[in-house]
Amino acid sequence: MNQSFAQKDRRWQIEQDGSISWQINNNSIPHDDHIEMSGKKISCVLRYGVAADGSFHATRSLVWPMLRTIPNNTHASLTRQFSQDAFDLVTVNYKPITSEKVIALTLNGTLLVKSIAGNTLELTRQFFPSTTLAGYCEIYSIKNISKKTCAIEIPKSNMVYTSDPTKGTEGSYNLYVDLYNNGNFNLKSNEVISFSVFYAGAKANEQPPKVNVEIEKNKRLALVHELSNKLVLETPDPVLNTEFNFAKLRASESIFETKGGPMHGPGGESYYAAIWANDQAEYIGPFFPYLGYDYGNQAALNAYIQFSKYMNTEYKPIPSSIVAEGTDIWDGAGDRGDAAMIAYGAARYSLARGNINEAKQLWPLIQWCLEYCHRKLNPEGVVTSDSDELEGRFPSGKANLNTSSLYFDALHSAIYLGASLGKDPAQLQTYKAQAKKLKTAIENYFGSNVEGFATYKYYKENDILRAWICTPLAMDIYDRKEGTIAALFSQRLWTQDGLASVAGDKTFWDRSTLYALRGVLAAGETEKALDFLHYYSNRRLLGEHVPYPVEAYPEGDQRHLSAESGLYCRIFTEGLFGIRPTGLQSFNFTPRLPKSWPSMKLRHIHAFERDFDITVERIGKKLKITIADGQKIITNRLIKDGDKINVNL
Questions:
Q1: I want to staple 281 with a disulfide (CB 3.0 to 4.6 A). Which of 19, 239, 257, 345 is the partner?
Q2: DSSP one-letter code for 273
Q3: CA distance 585 to 648
C-alpha cells in the first residue's frame, strides 16, 4: 500500500465520548461536506460547510418517503431543499448577527456546530431528524459571553408550503416550517437562550405533528445510545471501533414506516420506501440479527416476505426492486442475479436470526430462488443473468462471477438451515451435490490469468481486472486466494478510495471494497487486510467526507447509502471474527486476531436469539477463546491461530 495514503492528514478527530470533531483552523477552510440522517418518516441530506471567512452555511434536502409524488416510481418521495439559517432571522442589540467564526463541528447522531460572533456571542446549531415523526429538527442557542446585557429578538415564524395537487398521489401536501420559543429576551452575561425550528410534512387532510424538539433530540440520542451498546466492537484500534459504531447507526436508521411495513431504504435522495435484492436482501438483511435491533429484524423479514410474493410456478424472475411502499416493482435491468442475492441473504438471515418460525416462513422463498438459479445454469454449469448489481454500468456478460458465487453460498446455507428444520435429507444431499459441481464450474469457467494475476475473469470475455473478483473469498472459495488478493491490492485496482470498479477507471463503489476486506480476512490474510482496513476506515471516518461508508463516485457524489454501512460491520462479524452460521443455534468460528493485537472482543452479539460475548486473546502462540452468555461460559478453550471451531449455543 502507498504509505502516503495511510498517513494522509485527518480533518476530524475521535473524542473520548465516541463522537468525532473537526476543530477549525484557518488552514482547514473553506471546506464543504454532506451527511445523510434518517428517521422512520423523514430523511435529510445535510450539505454543510465553513467558508473561508469562518462563517457556517447549510442546505438541508428533506425527503418524505410516504408523501408520494407522480409518477409513483422508485424516486417518487416528496423532496424539498431549504437553505435558510435561523440565526439570520435574529437580532442582537437590534442588529443582525455578524462576524461569525466557526470553532468546531461534532458528529455523533447529530451535527453540532459551535461558533463565536465577535466577542459577544457563543452560538450553537444542532441538526437531526425525528426518530418517529415526519419532521426534521434544528436547535439554536445563543450565549452572551460579553460583560453587558444583550437584547435578543427572535421572531415568530410559521411558514406553510403547499405542493401542487396534480403532482401528488394524494393531492397536495403541506410542508410546515415552524420556529419555537420566539420573543424578546434580555440576556445577561453568561446566560443562554435557545430556540428551535421544525420542518414537517403532512397530507392535506392531516394535522402537522405536534412537537417538542428537546424531546425529539433525546429520542435521537437514545437511539444512538441503544445501538452503541449492542454488538460492541473492542479492539486496540480506536479508528475501527469508532467507525464500526458509526456504521451501526447509519445501517439502522434508514428504515421507513411504509404502508407495506417497515422498509429499509438505501437513501441518497433517491431510494426510499422501497427494497432491492442486493442492498436489502443481500447486504443488510443478514447483519441485523447480530445487532439485535428489533426494527431492523422486522425490516429484514419484511423485505424477504415482500420478495416472496413474486414467486411463480413458471420461474419468471423475481423483480430487482419493490417500490412505492410495496405497491409496484422495478425490473429495468432485467434479471440481475436477484434470485441468488435473495437466496443468499434470506438463508443467512434465517440462520443468524435463530427463530424457527421465521425460518419456516422463509424456507419456501429460499427453495424457490435456489431452483430458479439451478434452472439458469448454462452448459458450463454457471448461472446466467441479464446483468449484475451494477445494472449495466459495466459489462457483465451472460454469466458473471458474483451471481454464481452467491448461489454457491446460498446452497450451503440452505443445507444448514434445512437440517435445522428437519427437511428431507435427500433434498439437502441434492443441494450438496449441486454446490460441489458449481464450485468446479466456477473454477473452470471464471478461473483465469488476468493481467498477470492468477485470479478470476468476471465474465467469459473479460480481460481487465474487476473489483468483484473478491466475491469468492467472502463465500469460502479460496482456490485462487493468493492471486486474487495480490490483484485486489495491486496498483491496478487499489486506489486512495479503495477498489476501482474496473482497473484503470476512476469509478469506485464501496460495496466491492467492503466485500473484499471481509473476504481477505476470511481467507486468513489478516495482516495485509488490517493495513487496508485501517486505511479505509481512517479515510471514511476522519478524512474529507465523513463519517460513513459511501455508495460510489462519481455517480451520486459518494452518497451515504445505508446498506454499505451494514457491509462495513460484516467485515468484523464474518471476516475478523469469522462467524459463519451453521444452524439456528450454532456457528463455525475462525477468529483472525492480528499479530500486533493482544486481544479483541465483540460484546452483546444478539444472533441466534441470544445475547453473548466473544473474547479472543493471544496466549503465547495460541489463541484463548471465551464465549459467554452473561456470567455463563459457553466456550473456553485454546486453539491454534487459523483453527476453526464449531460453537453450539
A1: 345
A2: S
A3: 6
> Which DSSP string corresponds to 410-443?
HHHHHHHHHHHTT--HHHHHHHHHHHHHHHHHHH
| DSSP symbols for 195-211 | EEEEEEEEETTSPPPP-
Bridge-based pairing of strands 173-180 and 77-82 is unpaired
Alpha-carbon separation of residue 313 from 42, 261, 310, 490 (angstroms): 38, 26, 10, 46
Separation CA 76–CA 67 (nearest Å): 8
Element (H, E) at 370: helix 356-375
SS3 403: helix
Cα 482 to chain center, whole Å?
A: 29
Closest CA to 57 of 15, 111, 110: 111
DSSP 8-state symbol, 281: I
| Distance from C-alpha of 363 to C-alpha of 414, rounded to nearest angstrom | 8
Residue with cell 470553532: 103
Judged against a pLDDT cut of 90, whether residue 116 lies above it is answered with yes
* pLDDT tens, residue by residue, 535-593: 999 999 999 999 999 999 999 999 999 999 999 999 999 999 999 999 999 999 999 99
Could you tell me the sign of the dihedral formed by the alpha carbons of 575, 581, 585, 589, in that order? negative
Q: How many CA atoms lie within 13 A of 109 on its CB side?
A: 23
Q: Sorting pLDDT into bands at 50, 70 and 90, what band is 2? A: very low
Confidence at 27, pLDDT banded by 50, 70, 90: confident
d(CA 481, CA 479): 6
Distance of CA 34 to the CA centre of its chain: 16
Nearest to 298 by CA among 256, 342, 237, 356: 256
Contacts of 381 (CB under 8 A, 6+ apart): 437, 438, 440, 441, 444, 445
Rounded Cα distance, 155 and 280, in Å: 45
Q: Which residues have a Cβ under 8 Å from the Cβ of 494 and sit 6 or more positions away?
A: 1, 488, 500, 532
- Would you call 469 helix, strand, or coil by DSSP? helix
How confident is the model over 413-439, as pLDDT tens digits?
999 999 999 999 999 999 999 999 999
Q: Could you give the angle at which helices 238-253 and 562-570 cross, rounded to 10 degrees?
A: 140
203 within 8 A of 173, measured Cβ to Cβ: yes
The pTM is what? 0.97
Say what the pLDDT of residue 26 is. Answer: 75
CA distance 585 to 354: 6
